[in-house]
Amino acid sequence: MALKPALEIMMKLRTELNEVRAARLELQAMIRRHEVVDLRKLDELTIARAHRIRDQILTAPARHAATLAAEFEREPAELNAELTAKLRRFLQQLHSRAAKS
Question: Is the pLDDT score of 57 beyond 80?
Answer without folding.
Answer: yes
